[in-house]
Amino acid sequence: MMTPEQAEIGMAHAMTQMGYKGARALPVGPDAGIDIKAHGGIAQVKRHRVPVGRPDLQRLYGARGNSHHMDMLFFSYSGYTAQALQYGNEVGIKLFRFDDKFNVYAVNAYARRSTGGGIVKASGGDAKYGRPVAFVATVCAIGVIHLIYPFGFISILLSIFFMWGINSEVRKKK
């Protein structure tokens, strides 16, 4: 079962696949209605067992403030109430549903425009540090490859130092 933080990281990845550059999950805690920020969009993620209601969508709408150029996206694990669907359509919120395998499904017409009508397959993340697993695996693979070549030891040390620096920055933000 995914944690709320893993869900947020996964949905940030989904936003990136939909073309929202720089999508990143915000640190865990009071979020004032925003879990993910990206260039051109903000999002809220709910990993609840009950359908999302209109008040949650209203918080996202209010959190956008005067930034009317920002798209609003809402990701729900358990779907939406009828009132939430109606409100989302009235104010232009892109409504999505996601599952435990990080598959993202468009729920309304606004969302279908972002996905091309299909399913977006997001990946989970390394929730402890907020880094995609593929990124960590790539750095490790680079270190192993450099073992074969001269100065491989120096390359591995640089890779470790690079990862330590990134993880320190992420921990400071939390």
Automatic annotation (TrEMBL):
GO terms for molecular function: DNA binding; endonuclease activity. Keywords: Endonuclease, Hydrolase, Membrane, Nuclease, Transmembrane, Transmembrane helix. The chain crosses the membrane at residues 147-166. InterPro entries: Restrct_endonuc-II-like, Restrct_endonuc_IV_Mrr, tRNA_endonuc-like_dom_sf. Residues 2-97 form the Restriction endonuclease type IV Mrr domain. GO terms for biological process: DNA restriction-modification system. It holds the Pfam family Mrr_cat. This is Restriction endonuclease. It comes from Rhodococcoides kyotonense.
